[in-house]
Amino acid sequence: MNLWLTLAVNSIALGGLLFLLSSGFSLIFGLMRIPNLMHGSFFMLGAYLGVTLLARGYNFWVAALASTAALALIGGLIERLLLRRLGGDPLPQVLLTLGGAFIVADLCLMLWTGDPWQPGTPDHLRGVVEVAGLYFPLFRLVIVAVGLIVAIGLWLLVDWTRLGAKIRAGVDDAPIARVVGIKVSQLFTLVFALGAALAGFGGVMGAPYLSVYPGLDFEMLPLALIVVILGGTGSLLGALVGSFLIGFLYNFGQAMFPDLAYVILFLPMLVILVLRPQGLFGKVVS
Amino acid sequence: MTIKRRTVLAGMLASGASTVALRMPAVAQAAPFKIGLLTVKTGPLAQGGIQMEQGIAAFLKEKNNTLAGRKVELLVADTGGNPAGAKTKAQEVIERDKVNVILGPLAAFELLAITDYVRENATPLISLAAAEDVTQRKANPFVIRPSATSGQCSHVMGDYAAKELKLNRMATISDDFAFGHEQVSAFQRAFEDAGGKVVKKLWPPLVTPDYTPFIAQIGKVDGVFHGFAGSNPVKFMRSYADLGLKGKVSLLAGWTGMDDALLKSLGDEAVGVVSAAYYSATADTPSNHRFVAAMQKDYGVLPGGYAAGMYVAGQCVEAAIAALDAKADDRNALAEALHRVALTDTPRGAVKFDQYGNVIGEVFIRRCDKKDGQLVNTVIKTYQNVSQFWTYNEREFLGNPVYTRDYPPAKNLEN
Questions:
Q1: Which residues of chain A lie closer than 8 angstroms to B202, CB-CB?
Q2: What chain A residue is nearest to B52 in terms of C-alpha separation?
Q3: Measured between CB atoms, does B177 come within 8 Å of chain A?
Q4: Of A142, A203, B11, B200, which is the most buried if we count CB atoms within 10 A?
Q5: Domain B33-148+284-357 = CATH 3.40.50.150
Q6: A-chain residues near B206 (CB < 8 A)
Q7: Which class for B330: exposed (0-12), middle (13-18), buried (19 or more C-beta within 10 A)?
Q8: A42, A224 in Cβ contact below 8 A?
Q9: pLDDT by residue for chain B (415 residues), tens digit each?
Q10: Coil/strand/helix, residue A193
Q11: How many A×B Cβ pairs under 8 Å?
C-alpha cells in the first residue's frame, strides 16, 4: 500500500538527517560526557550560514563545507575558551551551554530576522526517484547516503585510526593517557569541534527539508538527546541505529496513533531507560 | 581635590535650565499620550511580532508621532510569546509606564492571560490576537479587535470552498492549539453548512519536525484546508509539494498560512494556494499605498496581516483621540470611544466595530500566483462587511459553546 511505503522511505530519510544531527552529539555527550545543550544551536547556526551562502549563489556543497568549517571553528573556540575552565563539572556545563544556546538564538534573530528561510532544493539534487512504483524526492535519499558516508567515516576514525585510539584512551582514563604522552586537552578540543561541525553540516543538509526559523534549535536538541539515549551513550553504532529507529517510530507512530503524537518519541525512550538504562548499544560504565 | 568654580556654575545653570525645560511643556502641552505595544521579538513567533512593531512604527512615522494634535510615545515590550511573559509585560506597561492604551498581544493564549487584568486596571487594549471569546461570550469592554477573530476569515474560506470552488470532500490540518482549533471549527461549520463534508481532521503538534506522516494520512479528498501559523506553513507546504499532492489536491489556507509577509520565504510550492485574509498588500486604498511604500522603504519587507493590524490599531487610536480631544486621558472614555470608531480608509478597507468590540470589515479570497519571478497573493473575491458571526444569527451563535477542537462535532469523519 502506498501510505506505508511512503512512510517507510520517509522514515529512512528522517533517520539519515537525525544521524547527521546526533552523531556530533554522540561524540560530545557520549565520548566527552559534556551535556552540550548548544547542539541544537550549532545545527541552527550551520543551517543559517548555509542558507545565506546559498542565497548568494554558492554551490550547495560549497555552502555546506563552508558552514561546517565555520562551526568547527566556533565549536573549538567554545571548548577552548569556555568549557575548558569548568573542569568537567556537569552542572556548570549545563548552565553554560544553555546560556550559550540563548545567546546564539538571539544573535540569529538579530542577524537573520524572524522570517523563516527555506532554500530551494539544489538543482542537481532536485527531482524524484521511483521506489517500487512510488515517487520520492531525490534530495531525501541524498541525505541518507550522506548520513551513511559520515557514519562509516566516523567509525573508521574512532575505531581504526591512531587518532581514534588516542581519543578513546583520553576518554577512558585521561590521567593515564597524559602519562603516556597523549595531549588529551588538544584532542578534546578537536572532538568538540568535530561534533559542532557535524551539527552544522546537518543543519545545511536539513535546511531545504526543514526550513530554518527561530526556535529550530530547541526543536532539534531533544531529538538529538532521544537518539543518543536510545542508542546508548558513547556508541556511534547506537546513534546510527537510534536515528533510524526514531525515524521509523516517528513516521509510523504519528500515522497509526495520531492521538499519541506528543508522546510517541518519548515513550520508547522511557521504556529503554527503565529496562536498559545504558541504551541499546551503550557500555555499562564501571 | 579642587572644584572649579566654573564647573559648579555650569552645573547650577544646567540644573536650573532643566527645571525650566521640564516645566515649560507642562504649561504648553499635556504629557505625551503613551502607547504600550506588547509584541514578540524572540522565539518562534518573532516573525509576526517584528512585523507588528514595524507596522505601528510605520504609522507613527507617517504621522510624525502626533495623533490628532497630541504627541505620542511608543513603548515596546517583548513578551517572549508566552502567557506568563505577556502578564509580566502588561503589568510593566500599565503600572510602571502608565500607558494610555495597549496594542497587542500577538497570540490567543497571551490575550487570554491578560484580558481580566486590563479590565481590572481599566486600560484599553487593541488586540491582534484572535481568541474568539474575548469579543464574544466573555466580551471585555476595554478590548477592541481591528484584525479578526480566529474564525472570521475561515468562515468565509469554508463558504467559498463549497460554493465557488465546488469542493465536496475536504481534510483539515492545523497546529494543535486554540487558534488552530477555532479556525478549523469555523471552516468546518461554514463548509458543511454550504453542503461540503469534512472527512478528516489532523492535528500535528505545534512543534513537528516533519509533516510527511500527517500528509500521508490525508487520503482521497478534493481539497485540504490548512490553518498553520508562524513558520510552520513554510515547512508544511514544502512537504505537501514534495509528496506530489500539489496540483492534485487543492490546498486552501487561513490568513496566517499565506500571509503576504511570508511570501518571500515560500517557493513554487505555494503557487495556486487559495487563502482567506483580512488584509491584502495589494488592496487599493490610499492608506494602503502609503503603508506598503513605507514598509518597503524602511524595512524592505512586504507587510502582512500582523503589520497591517497594528497600523489599523494606530488609526483607531488617532480617531479616538480626535473624538475625545482633551478627555483622551480618561481611560474609560477612551475605551468607549474606541468601540465607536468607524474608519473609511485603512490598509484593509473600511473598518467599524460591533457592540462586542470586534471588527466588521472586508475579507479577501486570494490565489497565490507567480508574477515576474515573485509570489503574489492575487485577490479573486472580496466579501464586504464580514462580521465575526458570519451569516449566523448572533444570539444563536453566542448560545453555542465557543469553537474548540471538537465543537462543533464533525459528523462526516472517515477513517
A1: 258
A2: A114
A3: no
A4: A203
A5: no
A6: none
A7: middle
A8: no
A9: 444 544 444 444 444 444 444 444 443 457 899 999 999 987 778 889 999 999 999 999 999 999 999 999 999 999 988 899 999 999 999 999 999 999 999 998 899 999 999 999 999 999 999 999 999 999 999 999 999 999 999 999 999 999 999 999 999 999 998 899 999 999 999 999 999 999 999 999 888 888 989 998 888 899 999 999 988 999 999 889 888 888 889 999 999 999 999 999 998 999 999 999 999 999 999 999 999 999 999 999 999 999 999 999 999 999 999 999 889 999 999 999 999 999 999 999 999 999 999 999 999 999 999 999 899 999 999 999 999 999 999 999 999 999 999 999 999 998 7
A10: helix
A11: 109
> Does the domain formed by B151-277+362-399 have CATH 3.40.50.2300?
yes
- In a domain, residue A286? The reply is no
- Reading the block at residue B109, the C-alpha cell is 493564549
> Of B91, B112, B113, nearest to B102 (Cα)?
B91
In a domain, A285, yes or no: no
**Separation of alpha carbons A158 and A135, rounded Å:** 37
Q: Which three cell numbers stand for residue B54?
A: 514595524
Question: Nearest C-alpha of chain B: how many angstroms from A73?
Answer: 26
CATH number at residue A138: 1.10.3470
Domain with CATH 3.40.50.2300 in chain B: 33-148+284-357, 151-277+362-399
All cell numbers assigned to B332: 474609560
Residue A71 lies in a domain: yes
